[in-house]
Amino acid sequence: MVSLPINVTGSKNILFPTSTSDAFSYSNISGYMLDNILTPGKGYWLKFFQPQSVVFTGMIMNSLVIPVTFGWNMIGSISTPVPVASIITEPSQIKSSSIYGFDQSYFIADTLKPGNSYWLKVNQSGKIILYENNGIR
């Protein structure tokens, strides 16, 4: 599960050229969807033959507003780690689950890390707001 750690938009083939699969995002309405153009804030499933590092060029994201819809959402992160406890939601109290990452298996995340994506369930549509510096504006 990956996301874009910088403010860049581009094709999966340019951003993740060593991926051995297409990029898939998730929508509660449509399920998994093929996504050829990747954007910040969204999470994606990609397959690689082996663990690797990917180098990106673009503008650092110090904050990000991610729209979410009722049910499960696959979200990305920003350019710096964000503690889960500092995530802001609008409206407040819409999170209805822990935030889950994936590394060989699912785990409850305590920090959103740049370049990773996460599962989050919400009880209504709204926004997830991420800021650097532990959410201090």
Q: How would you describe what is shown here?
A:
- The chain is mainly beta.
- It is 3% helix and 37% strand.
- The protein has one helix and 15 strands; from the N terminus they run ββαβββββββββββββ.
- The strands form seven sheets. A three-stranded antiparallel β-sheet has the order 7-15-10, with no helix packed on it. It has a two-stranded antiparallel sheet with strand order 1-6. A two-stranded antiparallel sheet has the order 2-5.
- β3 (24-27) and β4 form a beta hairpin.
- The chain starts with 5 loop residues before the first strand and ends in a 6-residue tail after the last strand.
- The model has no long low-confidence stretch (mean pLDDT 92).
- Structural class by SSE content: mainly beta
List low-confidence stretches: none
- Multimer state: single chain
Strand order of the largest sheet: 7-15-10
- Mean pLDDT rating: 92
- The span between the termini is 28 Å
What can be said about the biggest beta sheet?
3 strands, antiparallel
Order of helix and strand elements from N to C terminus = EEHEEEEEEEEEEEEE
Coarse morphology: globular
Q: Provide the β-strand percentage band.
A: 35-45%
Q: Supply the number of helical segments.
A: 1
Radius of gyration using CA atoms only: 14 Å
Q: In which range does the helix fraction lie?
A: under 10%
Number of strands: 15
How do you describe this structure in short?
With 137 residues, this protein is mainly β. Helices cover 3% and strands 37% of the residues. The longest helix is centred in the N-terminal third of the chain and has 4 residues, at 12-15.
